[in-house]
Amino acid sequence: MSAEDIRNELKERWSASPAFTLCLQIVDFVEQLPADQARMLTFKTITNAIGRNKIDDELLVALNILASTRIAALDAHAMLIDDDREEHEIEPEALAKAQMSGSLVHPETGEPVPDYEEKVFPFFVPTDRFGFGG
Predict the structure, then answer these.
(1) Cα 98 from Cα 23, distance rounded (Å)
(2) Helix (H) or strand (E) holding 106
(3) What is the C-alpha radius of gyration for the chain, rounded to an integer number of angstroms?
(4) What is the pTM of this model?
(5) CB contact at 8 A, 59 and 47
(6) Distance between CA atoms of 41 and 96, rounded to whole angstroms?
(7) How would residue 32 be classed by pLDDT, with cut points 50, 70 and 90?
């Protein structure tokens, strides 16, 4: 698997989408990163890399395409930065449960996290399709 395989699949399935070009820009950016810098791609990292100054609908569509099970180029993750400035990766199931219930349980203390939406930050990790793990 390679970035070229991802590009070909994008071309085959998404070339008519307005987000297609953005998908290719993101793939190009990820492909050139050293493996140690590709472990945690934030919205800020991605927007800076593709020359945008904000997150917009087109970017969200592109990231959704790249994280979809069909393309599977990026895995979506979330990080909780608690009141003690400690970082905790949040499992997708825990985040989904929090979004449904309106309450996130701290992964270490087991206590509810007040205003968790302000403390959880999404990030993306390239999958092994890029050749450096995910």
Answers:
(1) 29
(2) none
(3) 16
(4) 0.85
(5) yes
(6) 20
(7) very high
Pairing relation of β-strands 74-81 and 87-90? antiparallel
- 33-52 core/surface letters (b: 16 or more CB in 10 A; e: else): beeeebeebebebbeebbee
Start-to-end CA distance of the chain, whole Å, equals 13
- Both tokens of residue 92? 């997708």
Q: Is residue 129 a contact partner of residue 5, using CB atoms and an 8 Å limit?
A: yes
DSSP state of 73: -
Query: Which residues fall within 8 angstroms of residue 106, CB to CB, at 6 or more apart?
Result: 80, 82, 88, 112, 113
Q: Contact, 129 vs 2, CB < 8 A?
A: yes
pLDDT at 134: 42
Joined together, the tokens standing for residue 115 give 């205003």
Among 9, 7, 1, smallest CA distance to 134 is for 1
Task: State residue 77 phi and psi, 5-degree precision.
Answer: -135, 175
